[in-house]
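Hello again, I could really use a second opinion on something today. For a while now I've been wondering how a particular protein folds. Please have a think about how the structure follows from the sequence. Here's the protein in full, and shout if anything looks odd to you:

***
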Amino acid sequence: MSQKVKIPPLASCLEAEDVAALLEGTLEDKERQHVEAHMGDCGSCRRLVAEAARSLRAPKEEDEGQKVAIGDRIDHYQILKLLGRGGMGEVYLAQDHDLGRQVALKMLTTHAVADDNVLARFFFEARTLARLTHPNIVTIYAVGEHQGRAFLVLQYVAGQSLRRYLSGGPRSQQEVLKIATGVARALCAAHDAQILHRDLKPENVMVGNDGEVRVLDFGLARSTASHGAEADPFLSVDGVRGTPMYMAPEQWRGVAEASADIWAFGLMLRELITGRVPDAEHLSRKMLAGPPELRELTQRCTETDPARRPTARELLLALELMQAPSAGAQRSSRAPLALMLILLGVVVAIASWFVLREGEPARLGATGPAQRDSARAASPEAGTTSRQKTSALDAPSTAKAPPAKAPPAKAPPARATPKRAAKVKGRKGASKHNRRYVGEGLMDF
């Protein structure tokens, strides 16, 4: 039985009855196509449908016999507490007694299990997650069934959803870039595996206590593979899928490509920067908050024409470039290196001066031919002076020596005793020989 939808009092181009019928699934195919095509071009109507869809999210009560209580054991998992509840099921924190770790146990309600379409999609989500192994995508451990209720065993991320994280208001540029980069990496991994998420929103992104970001809930994923083992008929069915507030215009027309995930990413990025949920009115205005690079990237992601939006790989590259050191930071980092090079040059110059000073006395004091040649080779400028000095030394002396002073007149010899006279007589030959050198300036002795 369909739930009665209450349309909030908002201005819209569509009739309230048409919107209610669309959400309840009772609209005729021709009318549904007309409404979806209109909402693809009208932001106000998309907002209306998003507000109306919230009234359908209230979870239905489980039968008393089907409820899961704290402390219950499901296989080897013991329920510790309830983490969250939605229209299709609950998520519990459980203890894995076999491996000694905490896990997140996602279990469908009995009402959801009764819907074959929902059950099939639930298991396709399990297979999709099994194909995606990435640090920014939640990991799946197991799949099972308990009392007719299917469940998935997933990686438990201790932290908070991005929706709760955003309740604190706008974040710093560093925080925005870190979270956005983590989501972009997850999208790259999914798109590389030919998987579209189609339900990207803050509720499906976890910000861990470790600071890491992980994307979860691939329940509405779609495969772009067209053949082979990767093709999945159920996942490849086009249609209106997703959360109205974050659906791209083309999704309302039943077309979903990788660009639809980029649109949802752009809305999340805008919400990260401004701290408020974007709507059609805000999207029509030029964004003023945040750095220019982020504003431009957000604008590109939310282009109405899907062909003008960046790919996930281009998105990731742009975010990583924003986190690279700026030119000013690079100059600051080069300053210590430049200072070290200057100091090194000064040290080398001082050392060279000391080495040259040590070798100068030896060079100037060289008088031998070999030493003079070495000195000339080492110092060509000093070679001329050295050669002049050397030629002056090597040339024969032609100038006459200045006349020696005449020796003082000798006193008349005293009369010698016979012995003394004999000694003087014996020295006459030597005295005559020695006196020959007096004229040449040598001492007579």
Observations:
- Residues 16-56 form one domain.
- Residues 327-364 form the longest helix (38 residues).
- The chain has a mean pLDDT of 74.
- The two ends are 149 Å apart (CA to CA).
